[in-house]
Design a protein that fits this description.
The protein has 244 residues and is of the alpha/beta class. It has 2 domains: 30 residues; 149 residues, Glutaredoxin. The strands form 2 sheets. Strands 5-4-3-6-7 form a 5-stranded mixed beta sheet.
Length: 244
């Protein structure tokens, strides 16, 4: 059946003008769904990425709820794929980034399902005790937070701005001595004991379109997705807060 011929829904008392506009929007939504699938296929088809330069040592809660060191290679567990989200909550911050925090609020539920397919951790530069206290205060039940323990992971994989080239800094108006955390999502693949980088959310560092916050991780952000469905949209002045 051709797309133009498939039966469309109709809601009570809608006008012909509304239905025509909604049908056109539905066609655009179908095209977007196909584009999303095409992008995901391109991502899955990436050739092998670079081998990680070292087996980074992090810190996590271990047996008897005591901190213990853990290597990147150990984070995979029984999986061949590892997802690491860099949380903007370094020791220099009094409170974590509200953008990261609202995203993790939404991902806490997902974190009980994702590990069925891939290992998933949230990493930040703050000490482990501080991260655990924050997670408890936030009410997160499924997210696993680990500390970078001052390792080189954030700078190597853009969890902060330390590795930005001078040209990237100039393009973004950053000062040479300015560094801060970034909300980077990285995926790693382990094959026969070799760990390689598979994909990173480089869109975080891509130029923003006018009147937009950067949208590098919107594909997994439930707040922005829901607000995109309402007449008011996201709003020019709204940005999630840590507390209201």
């Amino acid at each position: 059946m051709a797309e133009a011929d498939f039966p469309r829904v109709a809601f009570p008392n809608e006008s012909p003008e509304y239905r025509a506009a909604r049908n056109a929007l539905l066609d655009a939504e179908i095209a977007l769904r196909r584009q999303t699938e095409a992008v995901a296929a391109l991502r899955r088809a990436l050739p092998p990425g670079g081998e990680v330069p070292e087996d980074y040592v992090f810190e996590r809660i271990g047996a008897h709820f005591r901190p213990e060191p853990v290597r990147l290679s150990e984070l995979f567990g029984d999986h061949s794929t590892l997802i690491l989200y860099s949380y903007m909550f370094g020791p220099e911050r009094n409170v974590p980034c509200p953008g990261c925090t609202h995203l993790l609020d939404g991902l806490d539920g997902a974190a009980r399902h994702v590990p069925q397919r891939a290992a998933f951790y949230v990493v930040a530069r703050s000490p482990l005790a501080r991260l655990q206290a924050w997670a408890q205060d936030r009410g997160w039940q499924h997210l696993q937070l680990i500390s970078t323990a001052d390792n080189a992971y954030p700078s190597h994989y853009y969890g902060n701005t330390a590795s930005l080239t001078p040209a990237m800094r100039e393009a973004r108006g950053y000062k040479p001595d300015e560094d801060w955390d970034e909300p980077m999502l990285n995926v790693f693949r382990k094959d026969n004991g070799t760990i390689r980088h598979f994909w990173g959310s480089e869109l975080v560092f891509a130029p923003e379109d006018p009147d937009q916050h950067h949208r590098g991780l919107d594909f997994m952000d439930p707040v922005w997705g829901m607000l995109d469905t309402i007449p008011e949209g996201r709003g020019q002045d709204f940005f999630p807060k840590v507390q209201y």
